[in-house]
Fold this sequence. Notes:
This protein is α/β, with parallel strands linked by helices. The protein has two domains: 15-186, NAD(P)-binding Rossmann-like Domain (Rossmann fold, 3-Layer(aba) Sandwich); 219-390 and 474-526, 2-Layer Sandwich (Dihydrodipicolinate Reductase, domain 2). The chain is 34% helix and 22% strand. The protein contains 15 helices and 20 strands. Strands 18-17-16-15-9-14-13-10-20 form a nine-stranded mixed sheet, sandwiched between helices. Strand 1 and strand 2 (21-24) form a beta hairpin. The protein is globular, with a radius of gyration of 25 Å. The protein starts with 14 loop residues before the first strand and ends in a 12-residue tail after the last helix. The structure holds NADPH dihydro-nicotinamide-adenine-dinucleotide phosphate (NDP) and the ligand O=C1O[C@H](COP(=O)(O)O)[C@@H](O)[C@H](O)[C@H]1O. Ligand LXAUTJHC binds at residues 217, 255, 274, 382.
Amino acid sequence: MDTAVENVVTPAAPSKVANGTPSAITVEEFEDLASLSQDDEASVSITVVGASGDLAKKKIFPALFALYYEDCLPKHFSIFGYARSKMTDAELRDMVSRTLTCRIDKRENCSEKMEEFLKRCFYHSGQYDSEADFKELGKKIKQHEGPRVSNRLFYLSIPPNIFLDVVKCASRSASSENGWTRVIVEKPFGRDSESSAALTRGLKQYLVEDQIFRIDHYLGKELVENLSVLRFSNLVFEPLWSRQYIRNVQLIFSEDFGTEGRGGYFDSYGIIRDIMQNHLLQILALFAMETPISLEAEDIRNEKVKVLRSMKPLQLEDVVIGQYKSHTKGGITYPGYTDDKTVPKGSLAPTFAAAALFINNARWDGVPFLMKAGKALHTKQAEIRVQFRHVPGNLYKGAFGTDLDRATNELVIRVQPDEAIYLKINNKIPGLGMRLDRSNLNLHYAARYSKEIPDAYERLLLDAIEGERRLFIRSDELDAAWELFTPLLKELEQKRTAPELYPYGSRGPVGAHYLAAKYNVRWGDLSSED
Ligand SMILES: NC(=O)C1=CN([C@@H]2O[C@H](COP(=O)(O)OP(=O)(O)OC[C@H]3O[C@@H](n4cnc5c(N)ncnc54)[C@H](OP(=O)(O)O)[C@@H]3O)[C@@H](O)[C@H]2O)C=CC1
Ligand SMILES: O=C1O[C@H](COP(=O)(O)O)[C@@H](O)[C@H](O)[C@H]1O
């Protein structure tokens, strides 16, 4: 498809890339392009498909505004909302300004910048499967682009069952004729290996892999991006990063609210597909990969795929699932998962899961990677905990009694909230005598850095505009991720495994402790020291 080109075709680079394959262009084409780019900068048009929806309001428009505020958007940019709902440009702008709450809100000149930003936002109402409607959108985009190289980004913020309709119509009728066209695809990328492969095949009927930006917003989180910096740029960490020194690694996600309002979506996916198979597994792959040849996207993604392919599919006996039930505390009754009207009665969908995974390679042989993800728990947080081995022949072991686990170092990377990296070390309590305690060497972001941390969607949108694919998921990574989880998911569903109930606001099912204990592990987030 000639219109679905990737990479900007500029007069300075007289080659064109159709479906990723470079070929020469004619002199006429070259001259056309030269005249198109009098005002040398290309335009970038961003279409948020599903603009009337929750994610668009909560995340995408705020992120775009923050990028505009920070002067990160290209000079010639326009934003188009597209959905079936009828709206005028003014109504879209009103919706965006009313729902827009982001880190910029309290900044200087915020309202002036907002006015400017809104003038660049437009709306087009249409069906998701109508090429005619997308053609009209394409015309509208063209009017705003003017005679420039046109780059177009489509953000699919819609339910997955209509991804392919939109990609087909947008690529055929609204993609760029002389610049790049890219598509950001939101999760879920299927429900299992087969449906994910079918989605990939479908997308590839209309797009080449380089045009597809599969978003996992956890990869855009500051501390997840920092993982590689921490490890590969500090001599004190990388040499310790293996089975020789690391006893176990814990990847923990918890939310202190339930599925309120998203029960319909959640029920057909459950927590394993919603959080573990993507967010936590992506963090694991980044954490465990070998040193990439370079920081180029393909080099990093190659290493991540190797980790995923070195893992053995999850076994049912290494998994615990749970579901929250109603709980009354302080006179308030919190609803159980199945009390939600959007959830089918008697649903067995897990809202909590804990799992032990292993990487079969020389670096990680035998090291348990424990994952835990849950909704309606006692706290909201996401963190990576690395528990180190005991110090051999520890001269001070007497100071810790019989519980040597209390003496081991633990590195905690708190992804959110209140970002921090801290290392638990043993230290002499000052004074006469010899008493030890565990203290934290603490890099607390709020204390160390005055700059606010950008939202993950800001980083990822900017990367997509700039064609940086490092933080997006390649199709082979996705296949490998599904291969790990699909057999387990099928078994759970075929056996209709009942989840262990846990009270809303609690620390989750007891089964998670037994699972950790099976591998001689204690969950770090539940220890009295935190
Ligand atoms: N919301 C969130 O926090 C997150 C969402 N996601 C993913 O992002 C995408 C968008 O999520 P979200 O905004 O919550 O979704 P919504 O349910 O809000 O849907 C977005 C828009 O799509 C249209 N739409 C909804 N249902 C249908 C349907 N059955 N058929 C056709 N059109 C429909 C509606 O627009 P209209 O009727 O105007 O056409 C709606 O405003 C999904 O893939 C979701 O899984 C991922 C992570 C988090
Ligand atoms: O992808 C998802 O992530 C959110 C949690 O994201 P966060 O950035 O707020 O931590 C989760 O609530 C949702 O269920 C899931 O689909």
